[in-house]
């Protein structure tokens, strides 16, 4: 029985092998890109909630601005939140928008944010996306 060695391959066999490997790599990368995340992301019920009345006044003020459509204090307010941390439920890119919550005594944006879904569903983070609480009315 002869062992299969690369140097024994004809140019045509080498081309076929290269095309087959390229096809497998393409299919594998396509499968990774289109796979639905199963264990990533939280469901709405897994995220702790907080009532609007229990939030600091700055958070309530930011909620009012979001509902009114602005004007917002920071240029980045309303930008897409990518959910890279996968702490919020999986959603299409552009679903989540982030807004700065003013932190008294800070000159920069600070760590507090509201992440909104179409001005109807809101999440609050006070630790710059390390944890979230769903805001309920």
Provide keyphrases for this structure.
alpha+beta, 6-stranded mixed sheet, globular, 137 residues, 2 helices, Nuclear Transport Factor 2, Chain: A
Overall description:
With about 140 residues, the protein is of the alpha+beta class. The protein has two domains: about 1-35; about 45-135, Nuclear Transport Factor 2, Chain: A, CATH 3.10.450. It is about 25% helix and about 20% strand. Strands 1-6-5-4-3-2 form a six-stranded mixed sheet, with helices on one face. A hairpin with a 7-residue loop joins strand 5 (about 120-125) and strand 6 (about 135). The longest helix is centred in the N-terminal third of the chain and has 24 residues, at about 10-35. The protein is globular, with a radius of gyration of 24 Å. Mean pLDDT is about 80; it is low at about 30-40.
Question: Could you outline the blueprint of secondary structure elements for this entry?
Answer:
Blueprint: H1 11-34, E1 49-51, H2 57-68, E2 79-80, E3 96-100, E4 113-117, E5 121-125, E6 133-136
Give a brief rundown of this model:
26% of the residues lie in helices and 18% in strands. The protein has two helices and six strands.
Major β-sheet strand ordering: 1-6-5-4-3-2
State the share of residues found in helices, binned by percent: 25-40%
Q: What fold name goes in the CATH topology slot of the largest domain?
A: Nuclear Transport Factor 2, Chain: A
| Average pLDDT for all residues | 81
User: Regions with pLDDT < 50 over 5+ consecutive residues?
Assistant: 28-40
Beta-strand segment tally: 6
Task: Decide which structural class fits the backbone.
Answer: alpha+beta
The description of the largest β-sheet is: 6 strands, mixed
Q: Mind telling me the CATH class of the largest domain?
A: Alpha Beta
Apparent shape:
globular
Termini gap: 76 Å
Please write the string of helix (H) and strand (E) elements. Answer: HEHEEEEE
Please count the helical segments: 2
Q: Report the CATH superfamily of the largest domain.
A: Microbial ribonucleases
Compute the gyration radius: what is it?
Answer: 24 Å
* CATH architecture call of the largest domain: Roll
Beta-strand percentage? Answer: 15-25%
Oligomer state equals: single chain
Tell me the number of structural domains.
Answer: 2
